[in-house]
Amino acid sequence: MYKVRMRFSKKDFMIFISHLDLARVMERALRRADVPLCFTQGFNPHPKISFATALALGVSSDGEYVDIEIEEKIDLNILKEKINKELPEGIHIIQCQYIDVKSKPLMAVIEYSTYIVRCVLADDVNEDKLNALIKDFMKNKEIIIHKIVKKKNKTREKEINIRPFIRNLELLNKEDCNCIFKMTLATGSKGNLKPEVLIEQLKDRMKISILLDSIRVHRLGLYSIKDERLIEPLEIGR
Length: 238
Hints:
Blueprint: E1 2-10, H1 19-32, E2 49-51, E3 60-70, H2 76-86, E4 91-99, H3 106-109, E5 112-121, H4 127-138, E6 144-151, E7 154-161, E8 166-175, E9 178-186, H5 195-206, E10 210-226, E11 229-231
Parallel strand pairs: 3-10
Antiparallel strand pairs: 1-3, 1-4, 2-3, 5-9, 5-10, 6-7, 8-9, 10-11
InterPro entries: DUF2344 (IPR018768)
Domain DUF2344: 3-195
Pfam family, one: DUF2344
């Protein structure tokens, strides 16, 4: 038995399919490509395929990951080519890597995501002033949001400090009222912060006139942490 970790992109019309539909598309492509998948035991065996954290609807990505377990070793270039022939336009395998069969699942190792966020300002702001506002925003030790939590048919409002979930925020580019931000945010079981939530807080706290309906999000990659350094999933478990 061998384990293969694959990085893939999700773009174009595929950004509007759910994570469940993505899993079905990937499984169908693997079967059509005659990949010798390993299956679980029991009355309802299914192929051993596991994804990293789900991508929100409408978000494109160059850095999604899936692990598959196969019964026999295959040349990775041939494997990638065979799967890509069966995948629909908008989903494309970028890279494959054999990893240790005993390595932790993707969901257990992912801690951060890096995003590019494009948005439009209602009122133009000087680039230096915008950078200063971002710097001041990042100086906050607490950034409290209120979230409605439902448990046992009861709802309550919960305060969450999202500041520990923000590793990095910077302005990459600004042309007139068009802005491009880059951010690295917590993702996974230890914490999760959506880029849209951060942009909303940036707008409300720093009074930046961001048009929220103009936000477009693209995920660059998923990462784990090792010695305070971001590492890609393909580097883990080799």
